[in-house]
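pipeline/complex-builder :: batch 7 item 3
reading input block
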Amino acid sequence: MRAAAAQTGSFAVPARRTSTGFTAALLRKPVAIAALVVLIVLVVAAIAAPLIAPYDPIVQDTAATRQGPSWVHLLGTDSLGRDLLSRLIWGGRDSLGGVALAVAVMLVIALPVGITTAYAGGRVDRVIMSIIDIVMSVPTIIITFAALAIFANSMTAAMITVGVLASAAFARIFRSAVLATRKELFVSAATVTGLRPFQILTRHVLPHATGVVLVQTSLFAAATLGIQTGLSFLAFGPPPPAPTWGGMVADASKVLATHPWMFVPTGGVIAVATLALGLLGDGIRDANAERFTAPIRTRDLFQKPAAVDSVVPTVASPLLSVRDLSIGFGEHSGLTVVDAVSFDIAPGEIVGLVGESGSGKTVTALAVLGLLGGTGRITRGSITFDGLELVGDLRALAATRGSGIGYVSQEPITSLDPTFRVGSQLIEAVRHHDRCSRAVARRRALELLAAVKIREPERVLRSYPHEISGGMAQRVIIARALAGRPRLLIADEPTTALDVTVQAEVLTLLRTVQQETGMAILLVTHDWGVVAETCSRALVMYAGQIVESAGVDDLLDRPRHPYTRALLASNPHGARRGETLPTIGGTVPSPADWPVGCRFAARCPLAVDECRAAPIPLIEAGPARTSRCIRIDALITDTAGGRP
Amino acid sequence: MLILIARRAVMSVVLIVVSSLAIFVLMSFVPGDPALTILGEHATPEALQRLRESLGLNRPLYEQYGDWLFGLIRGDLGTSIFSGEPVAKLIGLRVGVTVSLMVGSVVVIAVFGVALGLLSAVREGWVGRVVDAVSLLGFALPGFWIAIVLVAIFAVTLRVFPATGYVPPTVSPTGWLLSLVLPVIALSIGGITIIAKQMRDSARDVLARDYIRVLRATGLSERRILLLHVLRNAAVPTTTLLGLTAVSVLSGAVFIENVFVLPGLGSLVTSATLRHDLPIVLGVGVVFAVIVIVINLLVDLAYGVLNPKARVVS
């Protein structure tokens, strides 16, 4: 839950289900319409061949052989002077008819079998699925050849065989489509309301599975057309002089060197039909996806962050210095999620970066290492580490990563590559920084594991990530971050994913390591307990801004921003037994909805009109502390104590 | 791992029994006299009788099938109706051609598909568009059509490669390679685009994972991350698809061997089918089934090597 919120930044616009009709969605796609029109034209032409074909497809005209396109013969003539267009129109009956037969056979078998197995479940499902597995491994092409050998080169027999054999794979696909739909909430809801299974199937499950069925059917039709024309190319099916698409390619190939034109329309019609089936499938898939998923709101905001003169909480000779950092996401980075953030970190200090999900704290931390994911971009500001500007300088960033600034992430297990042993990943990091031999790196890796208090380092080195516990994995991650002897460690919620007992151990470890190495730590967290135990100073973020910064004791005992106070009050560590845990009413506004004035005003018990009128700057709120509040006086005298 | 191989072995026996049984059952559906259907209306009564006896058509279906199965266990696949030669011998002479064609194509597909996919995952723009365009063409144009065009361009016009025919590696290794180049290209185009697309999707998926971010934070070069970590993780789903592609290459080889007049199993089964020579069709069916089994086994093994979690499960 928390990880999901972190990935989407939790400022995702709430999903809205649309009830767009499937046909309407499909008709909005020009490519799909074109594909559909092409297919209809080909099918109608084949059906109406006696009416529309300009010539008899088998009548030879020895006076007009191997002609190019002309007004008399629109697509030219073949080696026997037969009109190519007429032969293609008639040949469509063999090819398209064959494909239609195979598709019909496949659907007649696969649909009932797929739906039945999905609904029956249990033993029936297992038995049918193992039969399907066997049939799927049968070499289709050879069985089709056998059918041709037995049934006197009958294309009908071949196409029925193709349909029967393919039905196994498609029954399996349809089964999973039905299963996936059955798990959807609205189907469970329909079950609860007492609809009979058959009604649920026809009203709710099948309409949702239709998209998958149509997409797979059109792809199967395209593949079958390839087999059908391939077989007629090899002279199976109706014997000459009957026109077949594959047979016409074979005829054309015999005179390719001298009369290449014949090769174009004969192969072209197959290509066009195949492409139309494939593009129709794509269109159906997209239309279906639009129909059942929420559209992403793409409001281009281009918010101009209000320029306000804020006090910057500086330190003398900082190790890391962030100035005026703004980060945008989405198209043209138009959605600002971090807004003019400035702070310093001195060598050797532990600074907390505190806030709720969606406050922008993780994004800020990742930006320092140039690790913004997806469409995230730094739109403004500067980040200097040890005097070196990191924004926009990839070489400076590469030189700083790992050796200047280390990184410990939220999810220890997913932060290790699952396909490599722990040892190989640790040794890789050591060798990258120390440029040493494998044996030396291995010794250093063991030392690092010992430094993070892992008891059986040899065994852990040989393990794969899925074979170790979360707490162990986080120690490995910390060990790897230490491999480059960084002077600053950015730890993004390093204990959140761990068990409570392990959390304390990892925090103790971080403090120990900090004392031994003298490195600074930027600790991103939402947990005041972690801040109180570990940090000397903290920055509080809300809706993309720093709203308060102070020494930890001052911050915890005398908050100077209503948000900090409310956050402290809602912290379970401070609660007494039997007392209802206070919560902050309302939610963090999403970046698209940030107000002009104070962003906390809507949830603040002390807010007045003036708070909402204009952007609020960070101001001095005592020695070495700042706050983004104009109601500090009221806050100090307020007795509600953060219980809005 | 041994359990896996044992399970595959059992599956392969079941598969061969099912495939051949399907053909025998089909034979029982043939309307009228199969011998007449096979030889045509102008056949002499003696020829019809000879065919009935050689096919064992005068005996019940299960007896015919039982005989064939026992023959199979002894390595006897029967004799060709047309030439009277043992089917096993005919297949033995030709299986090398089909296997070299298939192995060559799968290697080309794997190398080019993975490289193109990886490249288009990190380079937005023209690489991706070329992959898209080529895959559209590879999807639309039938393999035999592409094969003929390749012959026209590279063999007839440019005379770089032999147009048709096969040179055994024992006669001339260079000639063998040259005779395989065009067929392998014709067989690979479709597969390359399928693998490239899958690789692109998997690589993009892997690039968005936590561990890639952490590896970047460690300071590792983008090249190392891509060629070691992204490649290995993205290869896991790609391997499954490569197995399916190998099976479809086997089917494609049947058509391509005819275009390039390669004396492989595909051209053998085509001519046998045109002559209604069922013992050969059955024999080639068994060999194809075995090849499919081997492909599936190799995919399982590769999966185990690439994905340590799969090792625990199996």
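note: The first helix of chain A runs from residue 2 to 7.
queue -> next item
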